[in-house]
Write a structure and sequence with these properties.
With 147 residues, the protein is of the alpha+beta class. It has one domain. Helix content is 24%, strand content 23%. It has helices at 2-8, 12-19, 36-42, 60-64, 66-73, and strands spanning 25-32, 44-46, 56-57, 83-90, 99-100, 116-118, 123-127, 133-135. It has a five-stranded antiparallel β-sheet, sandwiched between helices. It starts with a helix and ends in a 12-residue tail after the last strand.
Length: 147
């Protein structure tokens, strides 16, 4: 499977690593079947005021082997249309990255209104089911050498 993905997208692993390469940043991910473009535009909604309630800090295993890690996270395609949303937050802003949410999201998978949001400027983009990395134009911390 990894070989097929690399044939279709030979730069995937290098682009991924470049996106999460800045010093003084912390990187997180969130697996969802929600529309990745909506998350890039609106931010990532949360019920609880904690990053770890919906995101996981990117571990070294993800960096070492991003394709197999993504395959594992989406259950070897068991999940339907998963997107892996990537977030990059400056180290000194991590404790303040979550904001109160006052807007009704366009798409939300819960009946209740999400109380919090991680703003779109912290959303790097997302990895779609075809292993394409879709960059969020609102992300403000892109490495100048990236893409």
């Amino acid at each position: 499977m990894k070989e097929e993905i690399l044939l279709r997208n030979p730069s995937f692993e290098n682009v991924f690593r470049e996106l999460i390469s800045l010093d003084d940043m912390r990187y997180f991910y969130h697996v969802t079947n929600q529309n990745g473009s909506d998350i890039c535009n609106e931010g990532l909604y949360l019920i609880e005021n904690r990053l770890d309630s919906t995101t996981i800090e990117i571990p070294q295993e993800f960096i070492d082997d991003p394709i197999n890690y993504c395959l594992q996270e989406n259950g070897n395609n068991y999940r339907k249309n998963p997107n892996i949303v990537l977030l990059g937050i400056p180290q000194d802003e991590v404790d303040y990255a979550i904001e109160n949410n006052y807007e009704k999201p366009k798409s939300w998978n819960k009946d209740e209104q999400p109380l919090y949001v991680i703003p779109a400027n912290y959303i790097i983009g997302y990895i779609n089911n075809d292993f394409e990395i879709v960059i969020n134009e609102q992300y403000e911390f892109l490495n100048e050498h990236c893409l």
